[in-house]
Specification:
single chain; 159 residues; alpha+beta
């Protein structure tokens, strides 16, 4: 994950956020969950700074979209309480999506500023931009979509 790529993904996400009338916090992390780039749109919530970064981190750490964790983390779910692990850093709200190339997670995006559905939509704009890039080895890039699971991880339907 290069800074140049991260900035282009943030630009795509910001454009979608503006179309939706949102002021979003947008974070891009590398394959280790380390922050590469962050953008706080004017009037975006201060709380969203950490939330967006933790959504991006969670998507990389769990190798799946954060929205896939919501049902599993609910009372009675197979992963109840998972959001209390890692010093509370695991986020189960939608808006974090891993960025995958050749079945390998190379980074993640996290968005905070709207509802979970809106944050997913904004993040997916960056994912689409990521998929259209061919400058990372010449092959088409792919990623995880909400509800698809990843590399043997279970899929939990959205509520």
């Amino acid at each position: 994950m290069t800074l140049e790529l991260a900035k282009s993904l943030i630009a795509a996400a910001e454009q979608k956020a503006r179309e939706l009338g949102l002021a979003s916090d947008i974070a891009i992390v590398d394959d280790g969950g380390n922050l590469v780039a962050f953008h706080r749109m004017d009037n975006a919530r201060i709380a969203g700074i950490v939330i967006s970064q933790d959504k991006a981190w969670t998507s990389v750490a769990m190798k799946m979209p954060t929205a896939n964790l919501a049902q599993a983390a609910a009372p009675g779910g197979p992963s109840f309480g998972i959001n209390t692990t890692n010093n509370g850093r695991l986020v189960i709200l939608g808006g974090g999506i891993p960025l995958v190339k050749d079945k390998v997670v190379i980074g993640g995006i996290g968005v905070s500023g709207g509802t979970s559905a809106q944050d997913i939509e904004v993040a997916n704009a960056a994912v689409q931009a990521f998929e259209s890039k061919r400058d990372l080895g010449g092959s088409q890039l792919g990623t995880v979509r909400i509800g698809t699971g990843y590399i043997g991880y279970p899929v939990y339907p959205q509520q």
